[in-house]
Amino acid sequence: MSTxxxxxxxxxxxxxxxxxxxxxxxxxxxxxxxxxxxxxxVVWVCHALTGSSDFTDWWSGLFGDGxxxxxxxxxxxxxxxxxxxxxxxxxxxxxxxxxxxxxxxxPQLTNRDIVAAFDLMRQELELEKVHTLIxxxxxxxxxxxxxxxKPDVFERLxxxxxxxxxxxxxxxxxxxxxxxxxxxxxWADYSEPAGQEGLKTARAIAMLSYRHYTSYExxxxxxxxxxxxxxxxxxxxxxxxxxxxxxxxxxxxxxLSKAMDSHNIGRNRGGVENALHHLKAKxxxxxxxxxxxxxxxxQRFLHEQVPGSAFALLHSDYGHDGFLVETEQLxxxxxxxxxxxxxxxxxxxxxxx
Length: 353
Description:
Helix content is about 40%, strand content about 15%. It is of the alpha/beta class. It folds into two domains: about 5-165 and about 265-350, Alpha/Beta hydrolase fold, catalytic domain (Rossmann fold, 3-Layer(aba) Sandwich); about 170-260, Orthogonal Bundle (Rna Polymerase Sigma Factor, Chain: A). Belongs to the AB hydrolase superfamily. MetX family. InterPro entries: AB_hydrolase_1, AB_hydrolase_fold, HAT_MetX-like.
């Protein structure tokens, strides 16, 4: 069984949290597996900042034959975020009102806007219940926000390496990256490659927050003692910037980093703690012990604030990227989460007989 690519079209005005509206949009999305007759085997995936709807590409260890989410058992869905560059409406799309690409005129999005668009697609697919909503990093932010917006839809939430409100530290990292884009003279242009050189530097900065001292020491340190220039670590930074620039654009990077900064589930909900009291989904919070960008204290805080939630800690040398690298640990954490839930339900049933 293979994944299938689709496009959802929304042809009405879509009002954003800022008050600005998009004249409709489209979402590119991927499905894998078959919806069962009970329609209760849905897993919805939210991707990270530079991800696409093809979750089998960037989270391949979790999805596939014989894996945690086997398409024989599950119907898995992932949509490329609005503002993205993998088939969904974004800055390179044509504005139907002007018949020209949006470029810099594309409106700023928040995570609330993004999940509101996802929910319109969910309704179109007639998915009244979602067994598990899972996301990491920016995708984890969106998953938590969505679970709060639609508490009766999502039965379980697997929230990975993310937070309830983006930190000042995280915002500072993102702004440093946007500063690099602004320094690119082409960023002022209204053209597809605008800001691409700046994007390369932005990605290099980001790698320092995605990884950890240990991973660089293990993988990028020089093997000898005679090198005085052209270091492996320096080449690695250049490589990562050029690699992203080949598949991404500076506009989307700018927009989605701003969406990450906007994340605050407490906004207009009486604060973070009050908002979390309304979370109905059975939830697993997952952290990575070396994560510098979304430190484990953020996931522990969430776990402490949500009664009955579960917590799992992944051990990794790869920092924040550990949530993508430590697949076996993550799989075991999710399996334990499901098994504990089943054990608790059986215990409750025995107590009520």
